[in-house]
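Q: Hi! First time doing this. I have a protein sequence and I read that you can turn it into a structure. Is that right? Here it is:
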Amino acid sequence: MNWLENKKVLVVDDTTICNELTVWQLKSMWIPNNNITVVTNWLDAVEAVRNATSWKMFDIILMDIKMPWMNGIQTANQILALCWDKPPIVALTANRYALDDPEAEVFSKMTLKPVDKKVLAAIIAALTADSEDNI
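A: Yes, that's right. Below is the predicted 3D structure, encoded as structure tokens:
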């Protein structure tokens, strides 16, 4: 059994093709479709976290940095303010210079889009690994 298949992932990106690619990559890592929640804006991201039940809390959040109205940094801050058990949030960006933004320290990890599947799998494994996962 692949231990990634039990992970619950929130994908936040305002671009449809980026969402489709990310979901495809996650499913190819054996993460089932019903463990993947996709939203396209900051408000839906905050609501998804707010409405998550204990059994559906997200193990990891993959978030675009550049979104309209509220960017990924602001959205990540909103989400972390809601959670006492803070999920890791990974910034996905097409902008190389965004990696140098000091405000981006809110993210657990940052990587450039398009994300290589092996890189994404390694990030998810590193940020969600705990003793129960490897049993």
